[in-house]
Fold:
Amino acid sequence: MAVPVTTPDRPARRVGARHFVRLKLRVMGNNFRGQGWRIALFLVGALFGLWIAAGGFFALAAPGLADEPRFALLTAAFGGGLLVLGWLLLPLVFFGVDETLDPARFALLPLPRRTLVVGLFAAALVSVPLLAALVAVTGLVVTAGALGGWPAALVSVVGIVGGLLLCVAAARAVTSAFATMLRSRRVRDLAAVLLAVLAALLGPLQIAVLAAVRRADWDRLTGAARVVGWTPFGAPWTAGVEVAEGHPWAAVVKLLITVAAVGALLFWWSRTLESAMVGAASAGPSRQRRGPVGGPVAQLFPGAVGWARRDRFGALVARECRYWWRDARRRANLITIAVVGVFVPVMVNLGGSRLAVDGEQAFGDATANSSPVLVSLSMLFVGVLASVTLANQFGFDGSAYAANVVAGVPGRLELRARMTAFSLYVVPMLGAVAVILAVLLGRPGWLGVMAGGLAAAYGCGLAVNSFVAVLGGYALPETSNPFAMNSGAGMAKGLLTLLSMVASALAATPAVVAAALLGNAWLWLALPVGLAYGLGAALLGSYLAGDVLDRRQPELLSTVTPRR
Amino acid sequence: MSDQHPALSLRGLAKRFDTKVAVAGVDLDVPTGSFYGLLGPNGAGKTTTLSMAVGLLRPDAGQARVLGYDVWADPVRAKGLLGVMPDGVRLFDRLSGAELLAYHGLLRGMDPAVVDQRAAELLDVLALTDAGRTLVVDYSAGMKKKIGLACALLHGPRLLVLDEPFEAVDPVSAALIRDILHRYVVGGGTVVFSSHVMEVVERLCSHVAILAQGRITRVGTLDQVRGDRSLEEVFVEVVGGRTATGEELSWLSR
Structure:
């Protein structure tokens, strides 16, 4: 009887990956319980994914079906490589990763790290996007089978399975590493720079691809595809093609490369996972803050908001401003805007002109590539992208929003203050985008068109996203991972974001139409008209959405409060 | 004129979540100047009831009035008289204590000079001045309760509604909070708070209501409710708890 309580019981059964998978399925299922609209959104998203997957399938199967062996390597290497790259970057930039099973929840369980990593990895494989990707890359098996018979098809099956595992492992490892870095106060600026460099890599890549496609130089492209095929980005997808081309040894080496890459990524993930599990506790010593300066009210208002009156509006703006910087999740969003907003339009518009400089005879008119219309379009994209960050602005607050409900803050005031605070960060960034682009294109005369287009798109985005935030707010999980999304219903949220972006873009389309129709007059009119249009849209949006907010404050509070 | 009205008056408040009835019709009158304890086991509906009473959760049925003003029909007047400390709700915790108080004060439409003076005083009394510019998210549980109380008190409300003010608070902080609440009631304010700590309720309250399974089962002054027994005995009897016989869980003592 006198056995000490601390004697460890030998576990009766081993915990395996299937437990994690079943847990994830159960959590996803419970998430839908009694939420008809969630099921509907999920189905719409699934159909959408299936549609895209079918398109991908036929694109990848085309070389096999048309019996065109010289394109097989190209589609496999570039299509598969794009898939891996997308899987890697999209969670960082747009969507976040699904943290239905938050690693922190497993911190207290006596599980070896190996079991945990394998289990979480297996659970991460249960996802609709992965299923869609599986459908798409099955096209590669068709191609390999048509060109090389059964052996090639079999190797291709092994290859795509390895490739999909690689996609998921890469996404998990990279977001986990970035989350750890952004959490830590010491290296978060470094993380921001790294993110910027990653996004900047898209530019040169795009230029190279465009240049190659325009030359239609198949030899050079095939050479590039061969190189890509030997990196982890292309290795899993091209293994089947190698068999079809009669190099079985190459296929084996490529499969080994894939396995090694997955192993390395999982190892990297397991290292950062530990810090995700203990969470903010290991975030390093907090920076020593200076002693209080002035009274409490003076402390609340940061320098940039010094102009505001010390009243309700001022307090809301000041608090929001502090939050955009102090909350890791919001800061990650700001960094994304800065990165994507500056780099993408620069690369899109510069891609054309640099080709022209390279002396491409056939594309001597490539400067037409960057016309006022194209510039307006890319500005539309940037403006809409910047404002979509506010689509779940109340979700950032979570249950803390109760303070505003208890104080009875009028809805219009609330929305105007939130727009103002966000704009204090974003408008300078957008201004910088316009100036940088004008300088790089060597078209200072277009500055007005760019700034006007940006203002119109951003203002319309603010208005649309006010409605989206009030009507479609959702709770964010209370983890310290800024990339985490809420359990399960990720598809629904992605659709909501997409919807709000489309709506904002439609509302701002007149700016692009004007650029196309009005010609030179628009160069002068764009700035004042665009500013007035954007400002008017934002004010109208806050006016109308504020009314809705007044009527459903408690409902909004309960939808943004995380369920426990 | 509002003195004729009870500080808080609930009529038939009800709330259902999906299939579960959380609160099944609560009637309650909290007299002005009383120190009112709302008792109940976990899951009895205390937080739901108080949330509906202060305008954080829309009731399916019923009314809530603060000093005569309907919380749901005339929220601006009612909320102006209310100070609230919800439980399980985050504060805007990426502000420092002083910043948070300034935010709450200005949000209530107070004069900045008054906010500065009262906030400094509250921080001093609650021994939070030493925290300096530490963010509230890095505060200990007791400090969070204290800053939450300061936010609720800052605008000088007539009625204070506190959800579990003594949960996770160390004895020193608890004594401080008790002292402040006591002074507030002596000064003419009214306090309603929920708790399941019997001795705190017995020591502080003038009135008590026991809530079980979404209904009020006992209500009245402290003496009326407990009679000649201890409050704990009455509570356990009303709630219907079970006592361990010593047979079960035998594997705990090997």
About this structure: Chain B touches chain A through 47 residues (CB under 8 Å). The longest strand of chain B covers residues 20-30. Chain B has two domains: 1-81+160-242, 90-156.
